[in-house]
Write a structure and sequence with these properties.
Order of helices and strands: HHHHHHHH
CATH class: Mainly Alpha
Shape: elongated
Number of helices: 8
Mean pLDDT: 91
Low-confidence stretches: none
Largest sheet: none
Distance between the termini: 54 Å
Helix content: over 70%
Number of strands: 0
Structural class: mainly alpha
Length: about 200
């Protein structure tokens, strides 16, 4: 375990910004670390609003995989606390964050679960885009000092496990849940749908 932590620390210090790093780069990293995650709901809403039932089901499945993965993260955090770099007084921190457990990264877990689901579902264009955002966010959160590199490795593993574990549940009830959500969407947003502001 000591060897793994040493390697983790070495990779972190190689990627972490310092006071000598250009301010614009630190500001960009902080912006990406905090707000790039918002691209996830934007992508899923775009999928929902532009596709047939199969595409809507993929958007719902991506939400399911992401929520399942985040649930696994919560269990890991309850079972094992791993301090963040700034708690361990390692490197430099350029983004305020609560001193909760660092492992795994919730941001990267969610992005990985969504990108894996989209790629497995055949949506390669938006899936690759989500994966690129995933990688950039992973870099940014290490760069600004709120996560370790191994937190990102753990996030990818948890996301993959959530996709695999969720498959049987999705095969059993996925389309039923999707159709129920479509019915709810058409009922709640009936007026803008009738006005053709939204797809039926």
């Amino acid at each position: 375990m000591d060897a793994a932590e040493t390697l983790n620390r070495t990779f972190f210090l190689a990627l972490n910004a310092t006071p000598a790093t250009p301010h614009w780069l630190i500001a960009s990293g902080a912006l990406i670390a905090d707000y790039a995650i918002l691209l996830v709901p934007a992508m899923l809403v775009a999928l929902w609003l532009t596709g047939a039932e199969e595409q809507l089901a993929l958007a719902v499945r991506a939400c399911f995989a992401g929520l399942l993965a985040l649930g696994i993260n919560q269990l890991i955090g309850l079972a094992w606390y791993h301090p963040r770099p700034f708690v361990s007084a390692t490197g430099h921190t350029f983004l305020a964050h609560a001193p909760d457990s660092s492992f795994p990264s919730d941001h990267v877990t969610l992005l990985s679960a969504v990108s894996f689901t989209l790629l497995y579902g055949g949506k390669r264009g938006i899936g690759v885009l989500a994966l690129i955002v995933d990688i950039v966010v992973a870099w940014a959160r290490i760069f600004v000092g709120v996560h370790w590199p191994f937190d990102m490795v753990g996030a990818v593993i948890v996301a993959w496990l959530a996709c695999m574990v969720g498959n049987p549940f999705w095969r059993f009830a996925g389309m039923s849940v999707t159709r129920a959500l479509i019915a709810l969407y058409r009922k709640v947003l009936a007026v803008p749908i009738d006005l053709r502001w939204l797809r039926p």
